[in-house]
Design brief:
The complex is a heterodimer of chains A (about 250) and B (about 170). Chain A is of the alpha/beta class and about 250 residues long. Chain A contains seven helices and ten strands. Chain A has a single domain, classed as P-loop containing nucleotide triphosphate hydrolases (Rossmann fold). In chain A, a hairpin with a 2-residue loop joins strand 4 and strand 5. In chain A, helix 5 runs parallel beside helix 6. Classes of the chains: A alpha/beta (about 250), B mainly alpha (about 170). Chain B: InterPro entries: Tscrpt_reg_PadR_C, Tscrpt_reg_PadR_N, WH-like_DNA-bd_sf, WH_DNA-bd_sf.
């Protein structure tokens, strides 16, 4: 089999994860194969408790699978230590979470620059990167603010800047609009789409179909397994039929 | 389309093409554009039932145009329209029939039906997202219309999810 395409940014095979807490063991991920190619924007949707966040945590090395393998840019992560995963999360994988996870006693500017400095980027360049990203995300003038002084939508934009400051080939987003209002959701959606258009590979976990519809591939996740994997064409619908029943022109 | 045309005429007299343009501008690109013929037919019917009256206005270089205005009966019909609440949106009963009856036929798999339907909704959702992105930011009414359609779809998708959960439990 010849395959000239570039190596997948992310590949997983046979991932399994069971949570052992109180009561019966929870089979969060039950045998998942997944391949994300450069430039793809993939959304994983499903009901809460389906295991989709656990899957994302496995893919970002935040949790370890009970079984299965993960490759980043074609490189096996089998032998990765915790420390190595932490390095990869600065360089090759950016992550945004539902609750932003900003460092509360660091300014906006420091939150964004920190991962760059930790990755060994010169302070001057880290500052330049930070300035550019914050401007792009409409946060100019908020550099000296503390996270607690910002709205949820603004905090998530800071988190996005932090995740992208080292230009990671892969962006993982775990319910990035989960604690935002409708306006904040639209904002996140617009920004993810914009970064994707510039070539950013994105893997998004969300229960919000509106957010998922920004992706060009949607994976439906049920009970720890992939139930469907659909490429959205987004073509133009026939005008006369109405965009959906709710927009049908009567009489 | 009868009542929306009456509502536009409540502002003041207008001719058919003006009404088409007003409607398009108000509702934006997500709303299926009415064709002008359809508007003229509806105006003819409204006039026949006494809700509006037309008056020919001479134009110098073109044929006469007909300018319509609302009658008292028309204003009354409009008032009655605003007084009545509308029926709730229909559940997608055709899909539900397929889902409910599939096992007995042996011709379709329920989970495959759900997946197929979800793809359809997701594609529509994507189209709506694109429409929203392309729509004039200041046209609040148009954006509300698109958002309404998206929320309906979201509910349909949630419901598909419920169907799937229920079926997986039966396995």
């Amino acid at each position: 089999m010849s395959d000239d395409r570039p190596a997948p940014v992310l590949r997983a095979e046979g991932l399994v994860k069971t949570h052992h807490g109180e009561g019966a063991p929870a089979h969060a991920v039950r045998g998942v194969d997944l391949c994300v190619r450069p430039g793809e924007f993939v959304a994983i949707t499903g009901p809460s408790g389906a295991g989709k966040s656990t899957l994302l945590h496995l893919l970002g090395g935040l949790q370890r699978p009970d079984a299965g393998r993960i490759w980043l840019d074609g490189e096996s992560t089998d032998t990765y230590s915790e420390a190595r995963w932490a390095v990869e999360r600065r360089k090759r994988i950016g992550i945004v979470f539902q609750f932003f996870n900003l460092v509360s006693n660091l300014s906006v500017a420091d939150n964004v620059e920190l991962p760059a400095l930790l990755a060994g980027v010169a302070p001057k360049q880290a500052r330049a990167e930070r300035e550019q990203l914050l401007a792009e995300l409409g946060l100019t003038g908020k550099e000296r603010s503390m996270p607690g002084e910002l709205s949820g939508g603004e905090q998530q934009r800071v988190a996005l800047a932090r995740a992208l400051v080292n230009h990671p080939p892969l962006l993982l987003a775990d319910e990035p609009a989960g604690s935002l209002d409708s306006k904040g959701t639209r904002e996140v959606m617009r920004l993810l789409s914009r970064f994707h258009q510039r070539g950013q590979t994105i893997l998004l976990v969300t229960h919000d179909a509106r957010l998922a519809s920004a992706a060009d591939r949607v994976i439906s996740f049920f009970d720890g397994r992939i139930a469907d994997d659909a490429t959205l064409d987004g073509g133009t619908p026939p005008r006369r039929a109405g965009i959906s029943g709710v927009l049908e022109l009567k009489d | 389309m009868r009542l929306p045309l009456l509502a536009l005429l409540a502002r003041g007299p207008a001719h058919g093409y003006e009404l088409k343009q007003d409607l398009e501008q108000l509702l934006g690109s997500a709303y299926p554009q009415p064709n002008v013929g359809q508007i003229y037919v509806t105006l003819g019917r409204l006039e026949k039932s006494g809700l509006i009256e037309g008056e020919d206005v001479a134009q110098s270089s073109r044929p006469n145009k007909k300018v319509y205005h609302l009658t008292d009966a028309g204003r009354e019909a409009l008032r009655a329209w605003f007084e009545e609440p509308e029926d709730e949106p229909r559940v997608r009963d055709e899909f539900f029939m397929k889902l409910a009856l599939a096992p007995q036929t042996g011709l379709a798999d329920q989970v495959a039906l759900i997946n197929q339907q979800r793809r359809q909704y997701l594609n529509t959702m994507r189209q709506l997202s694109k429409l929203a992105a392309a729509e004039d930011r200041d046209n609040r009414i148009a954006h509300l219309l698109i958002e309404g359609a998206m929320l309906h779809l979201q509910a349909d998708l949630d419901w598909l999810e419920r169907c799937q959960e229920e079926l997986e439990e039966l396995e």
